[in-house]
TrEMBL record:
Native source organism of the sequence: Methanoculleus formosensis
Pfam families (UniProt xref): ParE_toxin
The protein's name: Type II toxin-antitoxin system RelE/ParE family toxin
Cross-referenced SUPFAM superfamilies: RelE-like
Taxonomic path: Archaea, Methanobacteriati, Methanobacteriota, Stenosarchaea group, Methanomicrobia
UniProt keyword list: Toxin-antitoxin system
Length: 90
């Protein structure tokens, strides 16, 4: 049983602005991550000690910032973008 994936409204807008091949690749990587028994093994934990930490998924020069909720088997994609800009909020 895999994790469910939820995209925020900001992510949907950002994916629409990206080249189609990049957006598709990011979504494919997130879906593949959702099928893993422990998705935190394949992502980098971002610094900052909040109770629900953020993780970064690398897809070429782009990054997806994720919140992985193990208790409800949910991956929330909170931000996507080029690596030079995506970390500014998180």
């Amino acid at each position: 049983m895999g994790y469910r994936v939820k995209l925020t409204a900001a992510v949907v807008r950002n994916l629409a602005k990206m080249p189609a091949s990049v957006g598709t690749r990011i979504l494919d990587e997130v879906e593949a991550l959702a099928q893993e028994p422990d998705p935190t093994r394949h992502v980098k934990k971002l610094k900052g000690g909040s109770q629900n930490p953020f993780y970064s998924l690398r897809v070429g020069k782009y990054r997806a910032i994720l919140n992985i909720c193990d208790d409800v088997l949910l991956i929330v994609v909170v931000e996507v973008g080029h690596r030079s800009r995506v970390y500014r909020k998180h």
